[in-house]
């Protein structure tokens, strides 16, 4: 008796197939892990793809030192649970210059994330890196291939992308070139949430509403995750108020806007997402840097 | 938007607000449909996709606000919202107002999740349409109601048919601009019906729509009371899926990865291409043909009682049979074919035209082999479906050709099995995906010609001569000194009691290759034949010296790949063009410069110098005798 596979089953099967192709055809893959919900789903799929073996590659977090404390806690636990080696990389240049989102604006993302990622990939000699990006996130992502080639200097050229037919992926590359692989390309935000629910995947508690210390900065609402450091960098302590907040997306604490919310369970979070009237990345400051083509420009420079 | 559809959206909102768990339960069991939209810029394709996203509530307020401001700035619809702006992604495209690459869009209803491949309609982008069509269950072919069936409609339909899309929707768009005129609509459908039958499309579903006004998109429109079919969205929600059909076919699973966490566990991981499998099923491993029985289907969530097409699983067998990546697990009594010569439809996707005879990598499911393509039997004019004579395939050209692979492939006809019949072609040097193809059938000669095993092997031949076979492959420009140096080397080796043979380019062209000229294709065939002869001589135990310009890296690599590791020695006779031209022993450069000799290497035909030759001799600094002595010392080090 044939049963029609559900959309989640098909998405899962596709992601697993992609991961197995990478492991079979590349020399040294790594999974980039940002501790967000997409990363959590990607890691879960990796466990499934290779079970009963542990995923045959390390997890790597390109850190900015400005992530939420809850994220750092889950990062260690998730890697241990999966039986994977966790690599944490911080751009030493950004560290020594004390680059932070308040004083340095776009340079913060460029140095910690874009340059940090390039340095980390070069340091370990990874030739393939899994990333949790989805095509529904942003316009230029909609056209990116699942296997996205980068030159030896990590550049992306949208005009010379390889055609990608059926599920026959061309993984060949010259020495020094690398591939960014996006196994979640065809997932949407709703798919991710449904899968988190169905598979009971552990995610950072910040996605759920709770009373948290907040401050307002340049018109946005942020969480005071580390007030002492905030005061140190800003030179003063902004007014901190307890509010019931949560996050739709997680990045650096001073760059990720909170939303006031009462959604404290998974289904309430999904409910809020479905009824919401603004898109997911809206809370992120990073996309607005250079107007409309911001993300495309970042990717050409090597941002994931 | 009309009243019915907005109230439907309201009801969905109400369910989300009042009973989110019921809503989620309903959405947990959606199926998934992948489709493509084909049409030109003017057919309203982007507008239709924008409409589908909008009507299924996939557009957020901030996107809508941005869209409204964009519409006023660069839209083509005056003060109204230009949905097309939603889906034109890259900055360059937005500026030019055209879609230049495949973009994937997502929306969902309670029945299904949809992935739309938005494909450009321009002829030069056949490559993108083929890419989008390769994963689609269904195609929406858009027609501008004012224009009817156009050349591009035929092209899109033909490509969809070639890529095996079974469900075709003919969406006659912009009905609002012809006042919803039924007779005009009927005439278009009749026109298309005749054409579709001529290219083998047996069924299609036609519907009158307006992407801009929303007619017959989510609900039936009051403007077309004469239309008796379903609205587009309903059709998309209910049409039969390819995965359901695939599950009814015989079981096949290309093995991606052997899962071996410890000595007690050995599982074969893969995505099931067709059919179903359960523990106890007899299976066969292809190409070896060995049989076993399924012991278990292992997944992270526990062992499965059965699995079907579209699932990624790990299968354990009862017996210790050889099975690795590239093999195919199949139902035991109806295995797929194994062959090394095929006829296939090929779509060329690279700026550099196909070179018949050149070896490309061919990837089919999890198998990667070296493959050469013969000169095409014909190319197909995608506008008229005429078969035209062709010597090669250029970018965006489709043709039919025979393919030979260096190892047997497990395959099925593309029409039967997309996963085991669709392949990509990869350039061995620059790694680009240069083409894609659909296998038709294996050629009889490959089924009937078997390798005859002989008792005296190459080691026996070489052993008797007390030497190790070698191929000294001299490459360089005409007049560089290849033949002279090779001749000197052979004299030295002969004095050392070595059994040798020298194959010279000009001499071979007097006999074996006298039917070949100097086009790129003939040059490749020239080297292929010489490669085969060289291999036979090396098998006979000889040290073979060859003196051919052999201008292309790919063919020198092809010969290297024919021989056992370490037997191919590439010797680059490095003479600058000016020096070779100044020597001009045979007067050929002069003729070439005067235009009396075409396709002359270095003049109007390229020479690709070796990137990492085993030996390089510089003929400006060395005499032929010195060069020969240097080479002999490299290959026969003094003990």
TrEMBL record, chain A:
Sequence segments annotated as region (Disordered): 281-304
Location of the Phosphoadenosine phosphosulphate reductase domain: 29-257
Catalytic activity annotation: sulfate + ATP + H(+) = adenosine 5'-phosphosulfate + diphosphate
A single GO molecular function term of this UniProt record: sulfate adenylyltransferase (ATP) activity
BP-aspect Gene Ontology terms: sulfate assimilation
Gene3D superfamilies in alphabetical order: HUPs
Bias (Basic and acidic residues) ranges: 294-304
Pfam family name, one: PAPS_reduct
Keyword terms of this UniProt record: ATP-binding, Nucleotide-binding, Nucleotidyltransferase, Transferase
Signal peptide stretch: none
Similarity comment: family membership: Belongs to the PAPS reductase family. CysD subfamily.
NCBIfam families tied to this protein: CysD, PRK05253.1, PRK12563.1
Name of the protein: Sulfate adenylyltransferase subunit 2
Organism field: Allopontixanthobacter sediminis
From TrEMBL, chain B:
Pathway involvement of the protein, from the record: Sulfur metabolism; hydrogen sulfide biosynthesis; sulfite from sulfate: step 1/3; Sulfur metabolism; hydrogen sulfide biosynthesis; sulfite from sulfate: step 2/3
Active site, UniProt feature: 550
PANTHER family per UniProt: TRANSLATION FACTOR
Assembly and oligomerization: Sulfate-activating enzymes, NodP and NodQ, may be physically associated.
Keyword Thylakoid: no
Reactions listed under catalytic activity: sulfate + ATP + H(+) = adenosine 5'-phosphosulfate + diphosphate; adenosine 5'-phosphosulfate + ATP = 3'-phosphoadenylyl sulfate + ADP + H(+)
InterPro entries: APS, APS_kinase_dom, CysN_GTP-bd, CysN_II, CysN_NoDQ_III, G_TR_CS, GTP-eEF1A_C, P-loop_NTPase
One BP term from GO: hydrogen sulfide biosynthetic process
The organism of origin for this protein: Allopontixanthobacter sediminis
Keyword Cell cycle among UniProt keywords: no
Binding site for ATP: 476-483
Domain Tr-type G: 30-245
Parts forming coiled coils: none
Pfam family, one: APS_kinase
Protein name, per record: Multifunctional fusion protein
UniProt: GTP binding residues: 39-46, 118-122, 173-176
Gene3D superfamilies, per the entry: P-loop containing nucleotide triphosphate hydrolases, Translation factors
Highest taxon of source: Bacteria
UniProt GO molecular function: adenylylsulfate kinase activity; ATP binding; GTP binding; GTPase activity; sulfate adenylyltransferase (ATP) activity
Matches recorded under SUPFAM superfamilies: EF-Tu/eEF-1alpha/eIF2-gamma C-terminal domain (SSF50465), P-loop containing nucleoside triphosphate hydrolases (SSF52540), Translation proteins (SSF50447)
Keywords for the protein's UniProt record, in alphabetical order: ATP-binding, GTP-binding, Kinase, Multifunctional enzyme, Nodulation, Nucleotide-binding, Nucleotidyltransferase, Phosphoprotein, Transferase
Signal peptide from the UniProt entry: none
Function according to Swiss-Prot or TrEMBL: With CysD forms the ATP sulfurylase (ATPS) that catalyzes the adenylation of sulfate producing adenosine 5'-phosphosulfate (APS) and diphosphate, the first enzymatic step in sulfur assimilation pathway. APS synthesis involves the formation of a high-energy phosphoric-sulfuric acid anhydride bond driven by GTP hydrolysis by CysN coupled to ATP hydrolysis by CysD.
Protein family per UniProt: Belongs to the APS kinase family. In the C-terminal section; belongs to the APS kinase family.
EC numbers for this chain: 2.7.7.4, 2.7.1.25
